[in-house]
Design a protein that fits this description.
Elements (H helix, E strand, L loop, with lengths): L9 E8 L2 H12 L2 E6 L4 E7 L2 E8 L10 E7 L3 H10 L3 E9 L3 E7 L5 E7 L3
Parallel strand pairs: 1-4, 5-8
Antiparallel strand pairs: 1-5, 2-3, 3-4, 6-7, 7-8
Amino acid sequence: MDVYKTHGAFSWSELMTSDPAAATAFYSALFGWTVQTSDMGTGPYHMVKLGDTAVGGVMGMPPDAPPMPPHWGCYVTVDSVDDTLAKCAALGGKTLVPAMDVPGVGRMAVIQDPQGAVLNVMAYSSS
């Protein structure tokens, strides 16, 4: 199964933190991850890898984000972000962050289920 192409598969984990350098140092020592840093246009993004496989990312808190503690977020692959948002609303959920394109990655959004749990959804680009 290719988690980047399979609707409903958990595909990525991402840490938002106030200190990405400290976090990448901690998790690299803990799990043996290597880190590849690039600029995603909004600041440094630290892709973490286990061997040659990218398994997640670490990023700083956006400057305009409301106060919140550092946290891990999960992504679930979907065939269509827009269709998923419509179905989420029909099932009583909410869209917290509207669909947006992530250059070179795909299209994503953030949803909340009726009980309040938050989840990222992503339709990956085929490139």
